[in-house]
Write a structure and sequence with these properties.
The complex is a heterotrimer of chains A (198), B (205) and C (202).
Chain A (H helix, E strand, L loop, with lengths): L2 H16 L12 H7 L3 H30 L8 H23 L1 H7 L2 H6 L2 H12 L4 H29 L11 H16 L7
Chain B lengths: L1 H13 L10 H7 L3 H24 L9 H23 L1 H15 L2 H11 L4 H31 L1 E2 L2 E2 L12 H4 L1 H26 L1
Helix pairs in contact in B: 1-7, 2-5, 3-4, 3-5, 3-6, 3-7, 4-5, 4-6, 6-7, 7-9
Chain C lengths: L4 H45 L10 H11 E2 L9 E4 L4 E11 L4 E9 L5 E8 L13 H4 L15 E3 L9 E3 L5 H22 L2
Parallel strand pairs in C: 6-7
Antiparallel strand pairs in C: 1-2, 2-3, 3-4, 4-5
Chain lengths: 198, 205, 202
């Protein structure tokens, strides 16, 4: 495919990944940090931005590792382990770099990074881009779109939950309970998007 | 002996992974629309969590601190892949059903969570029991959710039709089969369990 | 405890190598069995779509025997489809379907009768769609509606309609609640049949 066509596909895939195939609300990946960190917008913002960054970079990295190392050596079935190691190593590396160069950034963002290693959304996005046979440019678009989609979901959830602070919630539902109900309603709403794009 | 009882109570009830720690939700949603799939996945999870906890605990004095998460992930992935390979060879039907979820166990926050919270600091025996009972605690909540979802959404239980729900008299709640239904069902279970816990605590005061 | 960088790298390497070795040996040991299972699934699917070849409860050995007796391997003359031979010409084709579903790839066969229009059945031997939703496509009760449908000429061979809507001879109803899987399956069927037709009439 020509570069033009690839960029076109990358844009389509990016927008689809944000709305109609949102990795959190349509595929239900990355829920644990979503439920845990969405209590206030500030924290959600920090985690969301970190996820966008890590997802885009690791999708691209894993694409390169898969197509330039695993496939030529006929080790495709190893991709689970290798992808996770790449993700963990990348996050570790980013944490070291941030700690070295910006203490302030480390204070706000640093604690989220270990949480991202186990975010199933990142591994899921890497596996999907392999299955769907995206080129490198399209993969970057897909990683970016998935990250933005995840960010969108967690920010929306945090906004809603902050509003709820003023309302009365039954004690058994406080915290995870009400979050799950809101998540269910958001998921229902996003199902409405499935007819928009093929 | 009291330590054992403590671990059992913690894993199954007081610190239940689903409604107290709220971990491992991705897998919960995906797999609980059929009781049979839930059973198989929970068995796989019990196996993975117990053995991973043991392995992490065995290696805890050798693993450098800065790569410990990578090593934990590697160990967890190892056991999951063993389960996947075994299923593919000896029970291909179930392997096909479980396909996407096997990967979900690797990133299941419970496994990593228990490894970080307990296994990397505790002795092998404690880690094993902690892992085992957390996984069992997770499983029984999932089975409750799955029972409701399958009966209400598909009119069957373990694949077999249930008397009233499988007849045309019951208009199947398809939403129970879809992920939003899982969210609602899970919220409901969390609500009930937590309410029960609050009341028990109040009575004890 | 050592936090020496090089020791970390070395340790990671050793641990990875150790566990990987075990997995690789297990994979190699079960490779034959896995392959046999996959071949059996493929043969069973082909028997299911060709008329009157499959019965419930056939054992693995019986399926394989039936397959060897009655089904011919793909060739250029059949557009790369498996065929059930008759005395003259072909009685039915089993056209391969392959493409991407909601989660992972979907592989199956669609049976087409001698007239190259009438559908004799559809079956899948590989799919990992959501159980209860997308995976319903593999259930016999949903697949039955394909029997007797006709493949249209032109771009859309079969149209996926919403559940409950009346379905004409070129339409099939989707699985309730599994829009993504149903839509992708329709695309897979259209693309695969078009490819088959092109190979038959180059």
């Amino acid at each position: 495919m020509s570069i033009d066509a690839q960029i076109g596909q990358a844009l389509t895939v990016c927008v689809a990944a944000v709305f109609t195939q949102n990795i959190l609300l349509s595929y239900f990946l990355g829920l644990c940090p979503f439920l845990a960190v969405s209590r206030e917008v500030k924290a959600a913002n920090g985690l969301g931005v970190a996820v966008i960054f890590v997802m885009t970079c690791t999708c691209a990295l894993n694409w390169m590792v898969y197509h330039w190392i695993l496939v030529p050596m006929h080790l495709e079935f190893f991709r689970f382990i290798i992808f996770i190691i790449v993700i963990a190593a990348f996050v570790q590396f980013v944490e070291m770099v941030i700690e070295r160069y910006s203490q302030r950034l480390y204070q706000t963002l640093g604690i989220f990074l270990p949480l991202i290693t186990v975010n199933c959304a990142i591994l899921g996005a890497c596996l999907f881009m392999i299955i769907r046979d995206y080129s490198l440019i399209v993969t970057v678009g897909y990683g970016l779109g998935s990250g933005i989609g995840w960010y969108l979901a967690i920010i929306a959830m945090a906004g809603i939950r902050q509003r709820l602070n003023n309302d009365v919630v039954p004690r058994g539902l406080q915290g995870p309970g009400i979050t799950l109900i809101i998540a269910g309603l958001m998921a229902l709403a996003f199902i409405g998007f499935t007819g928009v794009m093929q | 002996m009291t330590k054992l009882k403590e671990l059992v109570k913690e894993g199954l009830w007081k610190n239940n992974p689903v409604f107290r720690q709220v971990l491992g939700i991705c897998s919960t949603l995906a797999v609980t629309n059929l009781v049979l799939n839930t059973l198989v996945m929970c068995t796989a999870l019990i196996f993975t969590l117990a053995f991973s906890a043991v392995s992490v605990s065995l290696l805890r004095n050798f693993t450098p601190r800065n790569i410990r998460m990578m090593v934990e992930t590697l160990i967890i992935a190892f056991y999951v892949i063993i389960v996947d390979v075994a299923l593919k060879a000896y029970w291909p039907e179930m392997s096909r059903n479980l396909g996407p979820y096997v990967g979900l166990i690797i990133t299941n926050c419970i496994v990593m969570g228990r490894c970080e919270a307990c296994a990397k600091n505790c002795q092998v025996g404690v880690a094993a029991l902690d892992g085992f009972f957390n996984a069992v605690g997770y499983s029984f909540v999932l089975l409750i959710i799955a029972s409701f979802r399958e009966v209400l959404g598909m009119g069957s239980f373990l694949g077999m039709p249930v008397p009233y729900f499988s007849t045309p008299l019951w208009d199947k709640w398809i939403i129970m089969v879809m992920p939003p239904g899982a969210f609602f069902m899970l919220a409901f279970v969390v609500w009930i369990m937590r309410e029960i816990q609050f009341r028990i605590e109040e009575k004890q005061k | 405890m050592k936090t020496n960088r090089w020791f970390s790298v070395f340790y990671m390497f050793v641990v990875t190598a150790f566990f990987s070795a075990i997995i690789i040996s297990l994979s190699i040991a079960t490779r034959e069995k896995v392959k046999a299972n996959e071949t059996l699934a493929l043969e069973k699917a082909i028997l299911q779509v060709l008329p009157d070849l499959y019965e419930e409860g056939m054992s693995g050995a019986q399926i394989h025997q039936q397959f060897m007796d009655k089904v011919d391997q793909p060739s250029a003359a059949t557009g790369n489809a498996w065929v059930m031979k008759k005395n003259r010409g072909y009685q039915a084709y089993a056209v391969p379907l392959a493409g991407k579903g909601f989660w992972d790839s979907i592989k199956g066969v669609i049976g087409v009768a001698e007239d190259r229009k009438t559908v004799t059945g559809i079956a899948f031997y590989e799919q990992t769609e959501t159980p209860g939703l997308g995976a319903e496509i593999a259930k016999a009760s949903w697949r039955e509606q394909f029997n007797g449908k006709k493949l249209a000429d032109g771009e859309k061979v079969l149209t996926m309609k919403r559940p409950g809507q009346p379905a004409g001879e070129h339409d099939v109803n989707a699985v309730t609640g599994a829009t993504q899987t149903s839509v992708r399956l329709a695309t897979i069927i259209n693309d695969s049949v078009k490819q088959w037709r092109q190979k038959l009439n180059p």
